[in-house]
Write a structure and sequence with these properties.
The complex is a heterodimer. By secondary structure, chain A is mainly α. In chain A, 77% of the residues lie in helices and 2% in strands. Chain A is built from 17 helices and 2 strands. In chain A, a hairpin with a 5-residue loop joins β1 and β2. In chain A, α3 crosses α4 and α13 crosses α15. Chain A starts with a helix and ends with a helix. Chain B is 77% helix and 5% strand. Chain B has 16 helices and 4 strands. A two-stranded antiparallel sheet of chain B has the order 1-2. The chains are: A mainly alpha, B mainly alpha. Chains A and B meet through α3, α5, α10 and α12 of A and α2, α4, α5, α9 and α11 of B.
């Protein structure tokens, strides 16, 4: 497909436009709330909630006979909230740990949902086709009205996070302190959890039960690598989520039989990998570079001060030493020869005709500086 | 019961027992959610292995898929150790990606694979009897039953052989390391078994309900005992009971067998959570009530003693006005007074509550305690 034609399609093709905007909105919402979930060590709560929503969807259908998104989503939200409540109670009232409680609620609720779904299939008005799309999500079935609804919910969520920014920040980093200065921590927790449930529930339709957890965790985990500032992190997280949502939708439209949800997940995972590797400061690559630099500096300093110590020992700063005696004196193994040549290049040491090493005047000054700076550390 | 009903139940039982065994260690190690990750990412392994061997029932496929499970654990560990993301986030990053890749492969090449994502997620026990293991023209029963029996046998063998080692590395990794047992080796051995079990079970119950079978029965057992060996046995029993009860529930509701099994595991946990001796909700509530009453008896005895000694007992210690003086509700006062009389701590004498000798002693001791 030509680029121009493609852009034209993006603007004119109703389905593609709807799906791309819908997925982008979802990315913004889940990215925003995911930032808090990840910081509060609740990454997998999203996974559990999205699974727990299934029986809610099925029950809502059985009770109302309605297949309208709104009714089903209310059911999903109630079930998701109930699942969270169960997890909290199980952990609070018994010695079952958080991970077990979460895994249990996730799978048992889902199993119960499955029982209800298979029951629905046998009902006379079994138009259940609309229900199992929640399993994997079918972004292609998004309607313009769904996108409007998602946008409204998205705006509400972004507004709520803006209004309660300070409170949510405190809740995420130091809830105990928050409680002690009189913040209604339990209410804030309930509000944030409720918002998360809403985000998950609107995501079910687009990416499905299984992949919704990635939409919560991945944008936030990627954003975390680039900044130490919560506001910036939330912004980046929403941006990454939006980018992944839109480009995932586009990729799946470009290729036949390419499901939208998994495409979005692959894109957001790529963003995570890039962030983890290449983010400045926290990234693995910059970490390696920093570590290499540190090691080199240590090596240089150590060689210089060893040579200096030997020279003092001989009461002659210009006394020449063989590389092997420096190696013996140094407290740990490292490339002494290589380091001496490096120091030579910097003009801090020089070798005499016998291949022994002597401190230059500059080297002597530098070694004395080092000794003065390190103080007692260098003496032992 | 028809023979296929028996075969389905047998398979369900074997799957449940095989899942419960590694599940015990996952629950104890606080790694329950790794089972969720493993059971999803093996989808990628199954698809890739299928492309290579073109045979859904090859043992190579089972081990290939199990390898993806171990790879998942390895990636989670690498991410965790990098310190860049927390453990739960690491799990949430790895398995959706691997699962997505599996789903994409299936969707793109669905013409070539007899796999669809629904059956992977949900499994279908009812179809188990149709795929039979045949050698030399003889029928060895459903293939899934044979495969799962093998995996169950491996699990039992591993736990029997390395019971002590597993126990130490589970409860005290530091001690295990200092005794020369490598916790890393046992960790990955356990993860390999978990992956293998998840692969074997995915046909039957699908990747999400495997989690229920791995976590809920051990969690229920965990509330009933402090001994590892008993916990293992109880977990297997709970798994088996859930399998049979789930099968019949599904039979009567005409619903998904795996779904019913998972639901029953939840019910079993709920029962254990509510009624477990010592740790159950009921016994906690009873204990709390007993403690509250005992404490109230202590406080009231001290009140009576104080005022008997102070000489204003006639005002302070009248049974019908006690509620005003100690500011408790009348109902509680009645209960406490009757408890005190019953245990011989006090008597009523013309409307006054009077301590007996043992009551005086009790109150004096209670004061010292407090």
């Amino acid at each position: 497909m030509e680029a121009l034609e493609f852009i034209q399609n993006l603007v004119t093709d109703y389905t593609l436009r709807t799906v791309a905007i819908g997925s982008g909105m979802l990315g913004i919402v889940s990215g925003t709330l995911g930032a808090f979930a990840v910081l509060r060590r609740q990454s997998l709560l999203g996974d559990a909630m999205s699974h727990a929503a299934l029986p809610g969807i099925a029950l809502a259908f059985i009770l109302t006979g309605s297949k309208s998104s709104l009714v089903l989503l209310v059911g999903a939200a109630l079930a998701g909230w109930l699942g969270t409540y169960f997890v909290t109670k199980t952990v609070g009232l018994s010695r079952i740990k958080y991970d077990s409680a979460l895994g249990m609620i996730l799978s048992v609720f889902f199993g119960f949902g499955l029982v209800l779904l298979t029951y629905i299939q046998k009902m006379p008005n079994a138009a259940q086709a609309g229900l199992d799309k929640f399993l994997f999500g079918q972004a292609a079935t998004l309607l313009q009205s769904d996108v409007y609804a998602m946008s409204v919910i998205g705006i509400v969520i972004v507004l709520a996070v803006t209004v309660f920014f300070k409170e949510f920040k405190l809740l995420s980093f130091d809830p105990e302190y928050g409680k002690s200065i009189g913040f209604p921590v339990r209410w804030l927790d309930a509000i944030l959890t409720a918002l998360l449930v809403v985000a998950i529930v609107i995501g079910l339709q687009t990416v499905g039960v299984v992949l919704m957890s990635a939409m919560i965790v991945a944008p936030a985990a990627a954003a975390r690598q680039w900044t130490q500032n919560l506001g910036v992190m939330i912004f980046l997280s929403a941006l990454f989520g939006c980018l992944a949502g839109m480009s995932g939708a586009v990729i799946s439209s470009l290729s036949a039989n390419m499901p939208t949800g998994p495409s979005i997940v692959v894109v957001i995972s790529l963003i995570v990998v890039i962030s983890i590797l290449f983010a400045p400061e926290r990234g693995m690559v910059s970490n390696l570079i920093r570590r290499y630099g540190n090691r080199k500096r240590l090596r240089v300093d150590l060689t210089l001060s060893t040579l200096h110590a030997l020279a003092i020992h001989h009461n002659d700063p210009t006394h020449a030493h063989e590389a092997s005696s420096i190696r013996v004196m140094a407290p740990s193994e490292f490339g002494v020869e290589k380091t001496l040549h490096e120091l030579d290049k910097q003009g801090l040491v020089e070798s005499n005709s016998e291949g022994k090493w002597i401190l230059t005047q500059r080297g002597l000054r530098r070694a004395e500086e080092l000794k003065a700076n390190n103080g007692s550390e260098a003496d032992d | 019961m028809s023979s296929s009903q028996i075969e389905i139940q047998l398979t369900a039982i074997v799957v449940a027992a095989a899942c419960a065994l590694p599940g015990v260690y996952l629950v104890l190690r606080r790694m329950a959610l790794i089972s969720d990750a493993i059971s999803h990412s093996i989808l990628l392994g199954i698809v890739v292995a299928f492309f290579i061997v073109h045979n859904l029932s090859s043992p190579f496929l089972v081990f290939g898929a199990a390898f993806t499970g171990v790879l998942t654990v390895f990636l989670v560990e690498v991410l965790k150790k990098s310190g860049l993301v927390a453990e739960d986030a690491a799990i949430g990053l790895v398995f959706p990606l691997l699962f997505s890749l599996g789903v994409i492969l299936i969707s793109k090449y669905s013409g070539d694979i007899h796999l669809d994502t629904d059956s992977v997620l949900l499994g279908e026990l009812a179809f188990i009897p149709f795929d039979r293991l045949e050698f030399w023209g003889m029928d060895f029963g459903p293939r899934a039953l044979a495969v799962m029996s093998g995996i169950l046998f491996l699990n039992i063998l591993f736990i029997l052989l390395f019971y002590k080692e597993l126990k130490i590395s589970t409860f005290d990794a530091g001690l295990a390391a200092s005794l020369g047992l490598s916790p890393v080796i046992f960790f990955y051995a356990l993860m390999s078994l978990t992956s293998l079990t998840a692969v074997g079970a995915f046909d039957a119950v699908g990747s999400i309900l495997v989690v229920a079978l791995m976590i809920a029965p051990p969690a229920a057992a965990y509330l009933l005992t402090d001994r590892l060996s008993i916990m293992l046995i109880l977990a297997v029993i709970f798994g088996v009971v859930s399998a049979i009860a789930g099968y019949w529930l599904a039979h009567y509701l005409d619903a998904s067998i795996a779904g019913c099994m998972a639901t029953v595991t939840g019910v079993v946990f709920g029962l254990s959570f509510t009624f477990a001796p010592n740790r159950g909700l009921v016994s906690i509530a009873l204990r709390r009530r007993g403690q509250r009453l005992r404490f109230a008896v202590m406080m009231l005895s001290i009140h009576i003693l104080n005022h008997e000694e102070a000489g204003n007992a006639a005002i302070e210690n009248r049974v019908d006005t006690l509620d005003r003086h100690v500011a408790w509700d009348k109902h509680l006062i009645e209960k406490v007074v009757s408890k005190m009389k019953k245990s011989g701590l006090a008597n009523t004498d013309s409307g006054l509550l009077v301590l007996t000798d043992s009551g005086r002693k009790f109150a004096a001791e209670a004061m010292l305690d407090i």
